[in-house]
């Protein structure tokens, strides 16, 4: 009986060990399959980004040429006022198409973590003024006023990608313009601090619109949440840019009950 | 259940943006056509023709990208389409296009071909722009039973009735004398949507074309 017990025990133990080994191998196999699937998905994302980048180039080049020719005809004095009016609308249509093309390019790059950034010295105050200047026509059309507050102690000479910062700020301002009541006010507050050779900046854009419910505040930065006005891509692209720069972006309630969108970045101080 | 309109994926969003780029390029095409007719024959017309060829090349690539997401075959949400197109229609008309939409109306599924209707709406906006007296020239209303689109017309078309209005013929509304494609395209799109199209010739502000889109249960 004792020998039989021993044989049974050894047989059961070997079965158990075989089972465990098989399970380990299966797990390893699954992990390998998962890694392969991830690599393949990453490759697909890169291929898609490259395809879109090539298409963007194929659309942008002829459009830029078309814009140039249009501008040349517009400048001619022998062109009637009526024809110039049509050409001005055409010019605006080309510019709108080119702006959408930039969004398309950023969207594909952001989805495959291929956004490109420059590192150059810049003046934060100048970046903010030029962004506000670029949105001036939209603000005027909506009858909106702006208030800018640059808080003391905010580092002004920084190193980073000013074009990207401008892009994010433009998206936040455009969003605020869309949701502001007529003749409302949009506040832009810039604050920051300096620690050794790095500086932290935070930019708040506050409107006096209906605000964003707490449950929706995270969702508005998700890709393609449509707000009924635009493509719903501006905030998603902004989040991809800010997070790629190691910063944070968010939405909360402003002092007046409207929405306050903000982003913060930690950048190197320009010592030059 | 909360309804979130498309696009939901990056590929859909790429196609969605490409669709909008195609719309703007269509506006550019129309403006080039009109400007070319207003220019004296000569080298400037040649330059605009070159610019138009460049536009065509760009539009062909944008169209291919838009095909990544063949949405709207069989049915689509009309609310989403109008929300997306109304700013562009306003740009073309030159003034705001009033739209009344009940929140409960969303999503408003209709039958038909989304791309076809999109093109027709853009052409209608060009027709509405040439109507200086109609204010507002183009109106959109969305409600529980469906949607309606109203285009106010010039009295010049008052004598044209019924089917004749929707034939391809020179447009008498504007100086460009362009073909009356907008209404033809609309009729075609309405046939796909199983909608109704009628002309109110005795309305106080001049004759109006009213397109009614019936709501369906689900796309």
Helix content of chain B: 40-55%
* Tally of DSSP β-strands of chain A: 7
What is the beta-strand fraction of chain B? 5-15%
By DSSP (H or I, 4+ residues per run), the number of helices of chain B equals 5
Low-confidence stretches of chain B: 171-179
Concise overview:
Chain A is of the alpha+beta class.
Q: Which descriptors apply to this entry?
A:
heterodimer, A: 272 residues, alpha+beta, seven-stranded mixed β-sheet, 5 helices, 7 strands, 19% strand, B: 219 residues, two-stranded antiparallel sheet
Protein architecture, described:
- The complex is a heterodimer of chains A (272) and B (219).
- Chain A is of the alpha+beta class and 272 residues long.
- Helix content of chain A is 56%, strand content 19%.
- Chain A contains 5 helices and 7 strands, in the order H-H-E-H-E-E-H-E-E-H-E-E.
- In chain A, strands 1, 2, 3, 4, 5, 6 and 7 form a 7-stranded mixed β-sheet that branches.
- Chain A is elongated.
- In chain A, 32% of the residues are buried.
- Chain B has 219 residues and is an alpha+beta fold.
- Chain B is 45% helix and 15% strand.
- Chain B contains 5 helices and 7 strands, in the order ααβαββαββαββ.
- Chain B has a 5-stranded mixed β-sheet with strand order 2-4-5-7-6.
- The longest helix of chain B has 29 residues, at 10-38.
- Chain B is globular and about 55 Å long.
- The two termini of chain B are 16 Å apart.
- Mean pLDDT of chain B is 76; it is low at 171-179.
- Chains A and B meet through helix 1 and helix 2 of A and helix 1, helix 2 and helix 3 of B.
């Amino acid at each position: 009986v004792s020998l039989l017990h021993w044989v049974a025990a050894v047989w059961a133990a070997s079965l158990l060990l075989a089972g465990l080994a098989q399970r380990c191998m299966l797990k390893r196999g699954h992990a390998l399959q998962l890694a392969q699937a991830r690599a393949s998905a990453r490759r697909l994302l890169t291929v898609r980004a490259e395809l879109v980048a090539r298409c963007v180039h194929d659309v942008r080049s002829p459009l830029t040429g078309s814009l140039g020719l249009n501008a040349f005809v517009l400048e001619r004095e022998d062109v009637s006022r009526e024809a110039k009016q049509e050409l001005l609308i055409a010019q605006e249509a080309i510019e709108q198409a080119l702006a959408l093309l930039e969004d398309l390019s950023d969207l594909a790059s952001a989805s495959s973590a291929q956004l490109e950034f420059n590192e150059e010295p810049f003046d934060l105050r100048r970046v903010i003024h030029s962004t506000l200047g670029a949105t001036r026509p939209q603000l005027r059309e909506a009858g909106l006023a702006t208030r800018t507050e640059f808080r003391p102690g905010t580092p002004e000479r920084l190193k980073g990608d000013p074009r990207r910062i401008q892009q994010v700020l433009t998206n936040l301002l455009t969003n605020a313009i869309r949701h502001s009541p007529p003749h409302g006010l949009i506040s832009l507050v810039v604050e920051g601090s300096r620690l050794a050779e790095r500086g932290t900046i935070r930019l708040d854009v506050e409107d006096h619109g209906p605000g964003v419910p707490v449950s929706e505040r995270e969702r508005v930065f998700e890709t393609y949440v449509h707000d009924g006005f635009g493509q719903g891509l501006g905030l998603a692209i902004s989040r991809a840019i800010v997070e790629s720069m190691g910063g944070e972006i968010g939405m909360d309630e402003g002092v007046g009950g409207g929405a306050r969108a903000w982003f913060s970045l930690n950048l190197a101080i320009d010592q030059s | 259940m909360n309804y979130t309109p498309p696009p939901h994926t990056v590929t859909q969003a790429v196609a969605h943006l490409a669709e909008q780029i195609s719309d703007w390029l269509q506006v550019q095409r129309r403006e080039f056509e009109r400007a070319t007719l207003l220019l004296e024959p000569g080298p400037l017309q040649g330059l605009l023709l070159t610019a138009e060829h460049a536009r065509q090349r760009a539009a062909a690539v944008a169209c291919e990208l838009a095909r990544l997401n063949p949405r709207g075959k069989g049915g689509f949400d009309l609310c989403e389409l109008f929300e997306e197109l109304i700013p562009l229609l306003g740009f073309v008309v030159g003034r705001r296009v009033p739209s009344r939409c009940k929140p409960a109306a969303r999503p408003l599924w209709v039958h038909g071909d989304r791309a076809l209707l999109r093109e027709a709406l853009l052409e209608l906006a060009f027709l509405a722009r040439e109507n200086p007296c109609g204010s507002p020239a183009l109106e959109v209303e969305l409600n529980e039973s469906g949607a309606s689109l109203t285009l106010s017309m010039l009295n010049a078309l008052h004598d044209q009735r019924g089917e004749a209005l929707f034939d391809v013929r020179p447009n008498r509304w504007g100086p460009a004398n362009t073909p009356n494609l907008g209404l033809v395209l609309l009729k075609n799109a309405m046939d796909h949507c199983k909608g109704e199209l009628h002309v109110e010739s005795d309305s106080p502000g001049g004759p109006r074309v009213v397109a009614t889109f019936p709501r369906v249960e689900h796309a």
